[in-house]
Amino acid sequence: MGPAPAGERLGGAAGESEMIEPAQQGTGREVQKASSRKRTVATSPVEGLLQPVKLSRAELYKEPTNEELNRLRETEILFHSSLLRLQVEELLKEVKLSEKKKDRIDTFLREVNQRIMKVPSVPETELTDQAWLPAGVRVPLHQVPYTVKGRFRFLPPTQVTVVGSYLLGTCIRPDINVDVALTMPREILQDKDGLNQRYFRKRALYLAHLAHHLAQDPLFGSVHFSYANGCHLKPLLLLRPHGKDERLVTVRLHPCPPPDFFRPCRLLPTKNNVRSAWYRGQSPPGDGSPEPPTPHYNTWVLQDTALESHVQLLSTVLGSASGLKDGVALLKVWLRQRQLDKGLGGFNGFLMSMLVAFLVSTRKIHTTMSGYQVLRSVFQFLATTDLAVNGISLCLSLDPSLPALADFHQAFPVVFLDSSGRLNLCADVTASTYHQVQHEARLSMALLDTRAEDGFQLLLMTPKPMIRTFDHVLHIRPLSRLQAACHRLKLWPELQDNGGDYVSAALGPLTTLLGQGLGPRLLLLAHSRPSVPEWDISQGPPKHKDSGMLTLGLLLQPEGLTSVLELGPEADQPEAVDFRQFWGPRSELRRFQDGAIREAVVWEATSMCQKRLIPHQVVSHLLALHADIPDTCVHYVGGQLDALIQRPKETSSTGEEALAVAVRCYDDLSRLLWGLEGLPLTVSAVQGAHPVLRYTEVFPPAPFRPAYSFYEHLRERASLAPRPDKPCPAYVEPMTVVCHLEGSGQWPQDAEAVRRVRAAFQLRLAELLTQQHGLLCRATATHTDVLKDGFVFRIRVAYQREPQILKETRSPEGMISLKDTPASLRLERDTRQLPLLTSALHGLQQQHPAFSSVARLAKRWVRAQLLGEELTDESLDLVAAALFLHPEPFTPPSSPQVGFLRFLFLVSTFDWKNNPLVVNLNNELTADEQVEIRSGFLAARTRLPVMFIVTPQDRKNSVWTQDGPSAQILQQLVVLAAEALPILEKQLMDPQGPGDIRTVFRPPLDMYDVLIRLSPRHIPRHRQAVDSPAASFCRGMLSEPGPSTLMPVLGYDPPQLYLAQLREAFGELALFFYDQHGGEVIGVLWKPTSFQPQPFKASSTKGRMLVSQGGELVMVPNVEAILEDFAVLGEGLVQAVEARSERWTV
Amino acid sequence: MVARKRKRAAREPAEGTLSPPGYSAIPIAFSEKQRALHHLYVREHRVREGTKSAWPQKRTLFVLNVPPYCTEESLSRLLSPCGHIQSVELQEKPDLAEGPKEPKSKYFDPQPVPGFQVAYVVFQKPGGVLAALTLKGPLLVSTETHPVKTGVHKWISDYTDSVPDPEALQLEVDAFMEAYDRKAAEEEAKAKEEEGVPDEEGWVKVTRRSRRPVLPRTEAASLRVLEREKRKRARKELLNFYAWQHRETKMEHLAQLRKKFEEDKQRIELMRAQRKFRPY
Description:
Largest sheet of chain A: 6 strands, mixed
Number of domains of chain B: 3
Keywords (chain A): Chromosome, Nucleus, RNA-binding
Distance between the termini of chain A: 39 Å
Strand content of chain A: 15-25%
Number of strands of chain B: 6
CATH superfamily of the largest domain in chain B: RRM (RNA recognition motif) domain
Oligomer: heterodimer
Distance between the termini of chain B: 48 Å
GO molecular function (chain A): RNA binding
Helix content of chain A: 25-40%
Shape of chain A: globular
CATH architecture of the domain at 95-261 in chain A: 2-Layer Sandwich
Number of helices of chain B: 7
Number of helices of chain A: 34
CATH architecture of the largest domain in chain B: 2-Layer Sandwich
Low-confidence stretches of chain A: 1-46
CATH class of the domain at 95-261 in chain A: Alpha Beta
Protein name (chain A): Nucleolar protein 6
Organism (chain A): Tupaia chinensis
Order of helices and strands of chain B: HEEEHEEHEHHHH
CATH class of the largest domain in chain B: Alpha Beta
Radius of gyration of chain A: 35 Å
Strand order of the largest sheet of chain A: 3-4-7-6-5-12
Largest sheet of chain B: 6 strands, mixed
Structural class of chain B: alpha+beta
Mean pLDDT of chain A: 85
Helix content of chain B: 40-55%
CATH topology of the domain at 95-261 in chain A: Beta Polymerase, domain 2
CATH topology of the largest domain in chain B: Alpha-Beta Plaits
Region (Disordered) (chain A): 1-43
């Protein structure tokens, strides 16, 4: 999807440069837009904001009318909520054709009919003699081999009939296609035309002649060729009206044979109609082996004969039942959003209509059902049956001459017979496409069952492009490689059947091969269908290899990803041969611990990130081994974004292992704390409260050992300090651990005294840890830093009642009441909510191994866009968690890449204004509670933070977004995400395209008023930058971890210290943006409101100066002095201050 | 181009410094290298009749717009030519009530990051204030003889200072707790003394320590009691007993549905405005 539609944006400001503009402007525009759509908005949402409904008592409690009761009852029976009903009605209104347009189309169709009838005939010639064709038109068919028997002449069709969805009233916008069947006169055809593509050649010539004459007609805006359902033997002619109606409708002309021309028994799936002798130009092998059957070829011929009978069947079933029509329209929208309906072998709307007809005939759907119920029933059917094993048939006759279902199963992966019992409607549908449909139906069913409020939106309005749906995607190109693959896989009969379309011929066997190879790692394998080309009549049909590339999507199973081993059968078993053959040289005999000697394949992967990419190894190996497709032709897109979260100089891991080491060290520490002897009160709980301990720190810490000579030594305090003459030392961030002590009556009841007692505990803790476990500790009044195995932990002692003590206020009557104060809120957040969140996300990581990398990638991106300071760590973690806990309509991501794309999609499309983002950690919130939260949210919307995130522990306040982001910053984030998503998706879908993957991570700098360039010497995390510097400074750490007797420099980050000073001094005048991961530049944005001249006031002189403007003395910011202050405050760190705009003079 | 002209216009008054009525402006810069100057706006500290102020009248100079790098020491040094200075106090915003602060604990009240501040400078004699009002400046915060640390040097020294000395901390904690315990013990003793002794009007105060302790008077406790009462009442009530109750529940259900319907309609309206119904 492109950038979010303007209406969806918060505040509505359109571009970046306008970011800080006051929000009213944007909303004004929005209102204008709304009014320009000529809709009378009854309860007009003033700023696109939902307001609680206020109905008077009289209105609420008036006697209901019969009509109202009926409607309510209907809603209850036919839909599960009134909202859904309204939404469905609204959607149908949007996609259905209006009567006015229908009239215009009808007129056009009548015209078309007349023109077709007037096309002149031509005399009969040999099929191979095409000299009579005029110069401006080419035959829309690959005529390979060219020589074919038969004679052709053009005669106007005997009958022109409209078939398909237009007639049924189930066609949906935006692509309105009207299918018109042209019945060719019997004189054109001869006996045995079903053989050797003769019928198709004639069909193509018929169209070519027609095209030539219609193209000269001014009635038509464009006349093009295309393929029917992507089948390259069956071209069709597209006619579009001239002028402004050009996009209104596309008329598709399908020539078809006269009724009963072909004998159905010759077109059964077991019959051959393309002779090898003709097709391969050689005589059949002398051993008299039978000709291979050509099921697909036969089906394509049969399809042409059945056009009318199908439309008759559908019109009798759907005819008067509007609910069924609605259902079909909804199903078509559903298919379209999932890109399932296009191309050869797509599960198109016609198939859905037939499926609905089938369900009606088996009484699974009743004609009085609503569209929603039809949708549900179809999902139910698709999810619970398997047409690949048990085919279904619309045919009711028990005629013994009809072929058996088993014959069809032999020839086709999916079987769904039409009413004649001879035509498989799903002939072109591959097994993977069908499984994908099944999978989607199952997901949708589950989604409908949760009765989520936004179910409709997720089901029918959310597009699911391949790159955002599948964990890994691989492109095979150039497609001509598949020709070789066909030969390697010995697919000659299939090629003969498919008329040389090697892409379709190879697709089935390739997907089966990969499916077998990926085994337990794979949940679903899907493939793209080559897009249906459309070309000018003066051109030849496009070649098979021109359809770009073949894209395969892999949905992975996280449980299967951890294994590096493919365990085969025991060596002496007969299956061992197959296994060896399948895996080729990779298969080895191995002896296992239980003594068994088995065939096995071992993949090289040590880290989680390499294990995630084992499918890449499997795919390249199998494709090269079995299909002769070399590595260079396979573009595997799965780990492209991994580099962004790899530690500098470490390319083999995305940090999961390093995080696990840190967490293990924390576990050890907490055990030590539990067992500590000599504390006056025992430890009652130890909880982690740092991103590392929930696996979401972008760059995990490494065990640290200082190089002493690099530092100043503070011997008596056992610490190191930075030296002014050296570059800034490495950044070591202590990991916060909250340590609760048991309750006791001995604690003082005074806030100040509690702090002192806590400090005493911190001191005692340090003393005991040093004494009993020999750990290097340093206590301060609020925390104790502990150095353990190179990691530094910051233990904060907490007393449960302290927030309460801070809250207590005594009223004059002596009543003690509890009131939140900033200090109590902060303390509660740090000692209660943060540990809870940390442990919940820690748990999430155990369920979804990809969570860590997705959250880190998301954070990396937000920070790279210089917005990291505005959005707290925790809020971003929660947004990432939402992707896993509420993945609908997708499945939880199993790779960082797809997770990150969905993060961008969520951020850019979520309606933050009217919805809270519910993150149902541990599934603690029930549906009712969620409804309650939503209504509470709407009632209090204006008082709540712009970005509102609900968790089970935090239902009313959204603690982590309370202090930001502001509406403008959030809007900026939304805009950036909406821009980044299509760019990134395009890069991932087009492996050879320009630009590298880091493009979307580089921030736009042209919007800032001032840029402060920093010297890398004093940026401790310089190497973490998006574009990692080739060289940086030595940061005083030894590469070999080991014990240290002095506490390293903790949390010393000059850019952060500098920013804190800037914000304190100039926060009223400007906003400061910085990427904490090695950013070399600080972006400064002046606040336009504080640049308005103001009268002198003692309370607002900060950084301003007095000037005389029009004879009046007013205060304006003293910009030039401030710019110099920037340099003064950051002496040593600041390299240059660049003022880039003169906005402040306004 | 207008912009540039304005810019010049903005710079020009720097020579003949403007000052708001009642104040005088003193240009101030960090060091000689700085070309653009900030201005301190100073005046004598005065309060209206009847308002109490912790700062001595006449002798106190009130300074606005003190730049962040200017410390109390440097301000004291800069203004000392005007007369002997008794004290300099920097504050975030003008605050009359607050007098000179109590010395704060180094460990428990970390120093905030300074921004632009206001200062109260108390001279020993009123003459100092008058002299200061006529200062021409520009004042230089950091000079060769008295350098002021900023940037990397300041952060490093801040870091070094922030590394605590556990023994000193322990001493401070012990001292505080000793005082606290003494105070608590005194209060305890006093409360014990007053225990059961009626006051002038004959009332006896009932406390936690009394023979029959009472519930603490907290909001939470009273809410709990109310809640319990309510539950008790709800238990006794019969629902769906009378016909009118039946009728009313039905009506209530209908009203709920109506309300929901209205809400949904509004939601749909909004979605339509946002074009949320276009699946393409």
